Amino acid sequence: MSYEPVIGLEVHVELLTRTKMFCACPVVDPTRVEPNRAVCEICMGLPGTLPVVNRQAVELALRVALALGSRLAGDSLFARKNYFYPDLPKGYQISQYESPLASGGSLALPFPSAAEEGSVRIRRVHLEEDTGKLVHRGQESLVDYNRAGVPLLEIVTEPDLTSVEQAKAFATELRSLLRTLGVTSGDMEKGAIRFEANVSVRPAGSDELGTRTEVKNLNSFRAMVRAVTFEVERQTRLRRAGQPVEQETRGWDEARGETLPQRNKEDAHDYRYFPEPDLPPLHIDPAWIEQVRQDLPELPAARRRRLSHAFDLPAARAAQLVEDPRVADYFERSAAAAPAVPPARLASWLTGELFGLLHASDTSIEACRVSPESFAELVAMVEGDYLSPPTAKALLQRLFESGGRPSTIAEAEGLAQVTDVAAVDQLVEQVLRDNPAQVRQYQGGKRAVAQWLFGQVMRRAGGRAKPGLVQERLQSRLDALPPAPADAEPPRPGA
Question: H helices of 96-207, where?
């Protein structure tokens, strides 16, 4: 019997606020600040303290709920989720349970084929606070509470995903949406977005929902794909062997490449939810909702369609640009700076050469020293035959390292591409004169030698001659050569 997976995701998003969810402690970068410096009596849960809701966090949450088409609750309630763990200083987490900020809505999945398009329903969108972070050192475990109390937005899907590919597509599209809305950095290496996957399998074509497991704290697309794939295969083996799947929480072990049991899967009653007594109902003014709605930016799906139509870009290339809104902004500024350059060429250089430099140096496009205007000028110089592609790539590397204008550098250093026919003919004659043995080989019928001679001309030109022109003029000169004499000698070894 064949089985298919049923997958639902819980996505935890660290919101881009200045302060924590219920206190005035600053939100800090845990990689740059010493442990336990951004803490106070409120986020540490000391007796006699009272939490206060962060208005900025609520507004960012509203942006997400509206973009997903969710139904906003007029009044939502905070609750205490009780469990004990070293990184939870209060012994409970302030979250939302029975009355979340929003429910319903959906997110469409973009696929290369229209036949594969679908949407994933959203069950709930709610606010809560983050926990601290455990740091393991050998046999010891230390706790850093800098992250405790940081605003989190949790987005829970319905179990609508039926393949690992769909799960990755949803996660990628959601991350793009969240970045476009400006609610999170999206930096998964720093835990800004973390996934938990609820996974079960069922007979293919069935409507049943099997026993599910929850795989915790997947902080990269790669980890999510590997963990869900492993769990689907593990549960499928159990079902085929007639063995039950236990409802449990499992953790992903990256080094071993497998999920491992952590504890029995809790139900809601295990957390002993009850209304947070120190916080009143969260009332959202309809006028505030409307203002947030008016301020929403162009969303990724709409921007992909617009870029594809306005700039005649393939859907896949438009999606590549829009995945990070900062990249799409850079592209549009470049296109505006060089209206005569085909946008497809700009997009190709951006997602190829410039992406390569950004990834190799772990640099964001915002920190890139190559301005959109300089980038557009560089590509325009290539398209106008002023720079050869190899020279332009080398110049882009220099601009990336130190900035500047490509035209200024190219003019000062004589990097312009050689397109003068007479100059190219002179280079061709020099190469043929200096390599008589190879010329005789060509005359003797070894046509492949022409490619070697072409390389010699390009080398003599310092890589700046227009390749097509060199090829044309060299071939014309070779075609004019007489046949080789019968006693032609082979080229010297190593020539």
Answer: 164-181
Same domain, 261 and 371: no
DSSP notation for 411-444 = HHHT---B--HHHHHHHHHHHHHH-HHHHHHHHT
Would you tell me how many other CB atoms lie within 10 Å of the CB of residue 56?
14
For residue 437, CA distances in Å to 443, 455, 483 come to 10, 16, 14
Is 297 among the domain residues?
no
pLDDT per residue as tens digits for the range 27-60: 999 888 999 999 999 999 999 999 999 999 999 9
Considering the entire predicted model, what is its pTM? 0.84
Q: How many CA atoms lie within 13 A of 133 on its CB side?
A: 17
Q: What is the pLDDT of residues 5-33, one digit of tens each?
A: 999 999 999 999 999 999 999 999 988 89
CA 392, CA 371: separation in Å to the nearest integer? 15
248 shares its domain with 203: yes
Q: Determine the Cα–Cα distance for residues 77 and 100; give it in Å rounded to an integer.
A: 7
SS3 for 218?
Answer: strand
Within this chain, do residues 210 and 350 fall inside the same structural domain, yes or no? Answer: no
Residue where a domain terminates, one of 413, 437, 468: 413
Question: Phi first, then psi: what are they for 437, rounded to 5°?
Answer: -65, -45
Tell me, yes or no, whether 153 lies in a domain: yes
Tokens of 473: 């003029």
331 contacts 373 by C-beta, under 8 angstroms: no
Query: For residues 160-175, b (16+ Cβ closer than 10 Å) or e, as one string?
Result: bbeebebbbbbbbbbb
Final residue belonging to a domain, choices 413, 434, 449: 413
What is the total count of domains within the chain? 3
| Structural domain range at position 441 | 421-479
Q: Both 399 and 445 in a single domain?
A: no
Cβ-proximal residues to 137 (8 Å cutoff; 6+ apart), any chain = none
Contact 213, 231 (CB under 8 A): yes
197 and 106 part of one domain: yes
Quick one: tokens of 142?
A: 């230390």
Alpha helices in 71-214 (DSSP H): 164-181
Burial of 253-275, coded b for 16+ CB within 10 Å and e otherwise, reads eeeeebbeeeeebeeeeebebee
What CATH number has the domain bearing residue 447? 1.10.10.410
Q: Is residue 61 part of a domain?
A: yes
In a domain, 463, yes or no: yes
Q: How far apart are CA 204 and CA 3, in angstroms?
A: 5
Pick from 151, 145, 146, 144: nearest CA to 130: 151
